[in-house]
Amino acid sequence: MLRDLLDEYGRRLGSPTEARWMAEQATRLEPGALLAHLGDPVADDVRHTLDSWVVRRESGEPLQYVLGSWPFRSLELAVDRRVLIPRPETETVVGIALDVIGATAGEAGADRVRRVVDLGTGSGAIALSLAAEGPVDLEVWATDRSSDALAVARANLAALARHDQGAARRVRLALGSWFDALPATLIGTLSLVVSNPPYVSEAEWTGLDPVVRDHEPRRALVAGVSGLESIVEIVTRSRRWLVTEGCIVIELAPHQADTAVAAAAAAGYIDVRVEEDLTGRDRALVASWPGS
Description:
The protein is α/β, with parallel strands linked by helices. It has helices at 2-13, 16-27, 44-58, 63-67, 88-105, 125-133, 147-163, 165-169, 202-206, 210-213, 229-241, 257-266; strands at 69-72, 75-78, 115-119, 139-144, 171-175, 190-195, 200-201, 222-224, 242-251, 270-276, 282-288.
């Protein structure tokens, strides 16, 4: 019976909750419907799937990769080892970006927050969320230097198109490193640059939780010796691509906040600040470009 299988897997995983999530996914039952089926026999294919998932999880593989998808704001995103796992901190970054868009969209003659780019899009979490939740005339570009990551983003874009064709049509995926993926015609036209770039240092990487270090893509996590390399590069290069009073929203680690603010101010940005995540920790650099 399903009840017995859940008990066994809950003990093996040390988490009845994870066992239940796996069972819901394998049986395709809606969340909360599992209780009504605890006395049901388990089909062989479902048992085989659950067995393989539990073994993978016991080996240390992240639950999100085992399940193959994970919720992010209003979306259910496909995820695997080609991309970072979407996290609540990045959901906060999307919320900040949407606030930036909303703060200027209603101003008289303000049409500048209409073209945005998500640099290093990975699974497409930020870009697709902006398209799904932002204004209907928003144009969203999403770049990544990894063709593997972009394949995941493309699959998630196709999934978005199945239930929101309008949002999906607003997204353009481009292969390349940061701004190098964009056509030169976009120089000076971007209203918003948003990114969850690598911001782990080489030294920090060795001390990461093995679940992260041994499974998630290293180059999507590690920026370099200091951990600030990607943040500083985006701050510096964004100036050429932004419209006057265009904004940057860049995810960072709390201990990087002061240095990132100083870098943005030194680069000539105004209204430089750091926004907190839901736990009250510094999480996103926000700044405006005054133009030349």
